[in-house]
Q: What sequence folds into this?
């Protein structure tokens, strides 16, 4: 009988690997084998830890959403007043470019999955609700909804536009979006 390897982080590593694979090849290209290889775990670990690909995808996207929510909460909770909250929103839009493309791809993959499979919509709805909750610390509910949509739209344009909006454009757009 072989020795059993103690690997308490295996499940978590699989989830992280799933996000990496999805960022590279999309949900449609992600397979148990590719994810197991990336996580450096035996293929059998996939079915031991998850009840199929949808279970793994749900766990991976829940982790991804939680990370996004935490980043949002940190930025907005540090703001004291509307002006700092506006600046925090601009910083969120123009933040870390090293992870921006990966995060945008994962966001699109999650949105596509949620559009096709209702079971994934709760992840996106919870993320939107958490974002709006943090925005409502500084803005009215109507403003929070507008700013939330602005963040999504400008993030897409920053990632895909040949001439992406700069900070000044974003600051001006925030001013037009919010009433004082």
A:
């Amino acid at each position: 009988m072989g020795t059993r390897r103690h690997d308490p982080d295996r499940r978590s590593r699989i989830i992280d690997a799933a996000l990496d694979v999805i960022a590279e090849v999309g949900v449609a290209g992600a397979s148990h084998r590719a994810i197991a290889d990336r996580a450096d775990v035996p293929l059998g670990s996939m079915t031991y830890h998850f009840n199929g690909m949808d279970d793994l995808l749900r766990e991976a996207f829940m982790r991804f959403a939680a990370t996004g929510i935490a980043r949002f909460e940190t930025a907005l909770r540090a703001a004291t007043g509307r002006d700092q909250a506006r600046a925090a929103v601009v910083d969120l839009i123009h933040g870390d470019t090293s992870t921006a493309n990966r995060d945008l791809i994962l966001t699109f993959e999650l949105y596509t999955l949620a559009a096709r499979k209702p079971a994934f919509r709760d992840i996106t709805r919870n993320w939107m609700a958490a974002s709006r909750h943090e925005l409502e610390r500084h803005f009215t509910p109507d403003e929070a909804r507008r700013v939330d949509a602005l963040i999504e739209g400008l993030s897409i344009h920053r990632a895909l536009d040949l001439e992406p909006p700069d900070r000044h454009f974003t600051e001006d757009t925030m001013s037009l979006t919010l009433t004082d």
Q: What stands out?
A: The chain has two domains: 7-50, 61-177. The chain has nine helices and no strands. Residues 134 and 168 are 23 Å apart (CA to CA). The mean pLDDT is 90.
